[in-house]
Write a structure and sequence with these properties.
single chain; seven-stranded mixed beta sheet; binds succinic acid; 7 helices
Length: 288
């Protein structure tokens, strides 16, 4: 049993590596509380050298929060709470799951607090994941822009990703089953500047995939499109990012309340397989 975490920060903005821990045996109550605080502080943590069955991954996820609903993506047969993110080496190059900037399922009334992704088979070159800190994207704004954005909300929807007109795209994935639906067109409003429920820090709760519109007392329709484009560029700026090269056995946990991410699609002819679980938040996003 370990008594403390070994935390190695990976950039000056977000990301930390936590080596020398076995998630199956080392987590007593104190270490779990410390792990949770470390995830919230660093926003993405890499825990290398794990050996986890789907059931063991679910047991670990439950320590961070109850199962968070997974719409549209069919879980694996072995466990109803696990989805497999997999791209076979024979699949067309053009599309990969998660290959656009997003925060997981931000269109839900209560989006998942954490995603837990466990690497099984990864390309020797390529297939990295990149995260951007929405906390840094907010704190680096000038105060005038912070004030302008503070009263606004984002209109989140899965319409551009999981509507029936996207089915052909998803059907290219030979080993993942994604069932698009008219339900994807539903919308969910969340504050644009949110207060993190655990750290109290403000973050710019924006991602270009699921935020399909903005609402604000002073926002004119003709300004909305430009502001969306600007938010897309600003929040994904390289200065707010951290990039991870996967090794088998890596378990990565990220905080969806303060980050967005993208899975890079640069491994033509190679295979990539990871198991994913999500842990629920207990409260909906709230304004700062
Ligand atoms: C995801 O968006 O959940 C998948 C990320 C990845 O495959 O790296």
């Amino acid at each position: 049993m370990k008594s403390s975490l070994n935390v190695e920060p990976l950039t000056g903005v977000l990301g930390a590596r936590l080596p020398g821990i076995d998630l199956k045996s080392d987590l007593d109550k104190e270490l779990l509380a410390s792990l949770r605080a470390t995830i919230c502080e660093f926003e993405v943590v890499i825990i290398p050298d794990q050996i986890l069955t789907p059931k063991q991954q679910v047991e670990f996820s439950h320590l961070l929060g109850p199962y968070s609903p997974v719409p549209f993506v069919k879980p694996i047969d072995e466990h109803a709470e696990v989805i497999k993110v997999v791209k076979e080496n024979t699949e067309p190059e053009a599309f990969n799951f998660g290959g656009v900037w997003h925060s997981d399922f931000s269109f839900l009334p209560i989006p998942p607090a954490f995603t837990i992704l466990y690497a099984i088979d990864v390309p020797s070159i390529g297939g990295d994941t990149v995260w951007a800190s929405n906390t840094a994207a907010y704190s680096h704004l000038d105060s005038k822009t912070q004030t302008l954005l503070n009263g606004m909300s984002g209109i989140h929807s899965a319409s551009a990703s999981y509507s029936p007109d996207q089915q052909d795209l998803h059907s290219q994935l030979s080993n993942m089953t994604i069932e698009t639906s008219e339900k994807a067109k539903a919308t969910q409003e969340h504050p644009l500047i949110c207060k993190h429920p655990e750290t109290g820090k403000p973050s710019l709760f924006f991602n270009p995939t699921y935020v399909r519109g903005l609402k604000g007392p002073e926002l004119k329709t003709e300004e909305e499109e430009n502001l969306m484009k600007w938010l897309n560029q600003w929040t994904t700026g390289i200065q707010f990012t951290f990039r991870h090269k996967w090794s088998p056995g890596d378990l990565v946990i990220w905080d969806n309340r303060s980050t967005q991410h993208i899975a890079l699609n640069d491994y033509k002819g190679a295979r990539r397989e990871l198991n994913r679980t999500t842990a629920s938040d207990s409260v909906p996003p709230s304004p700062y």
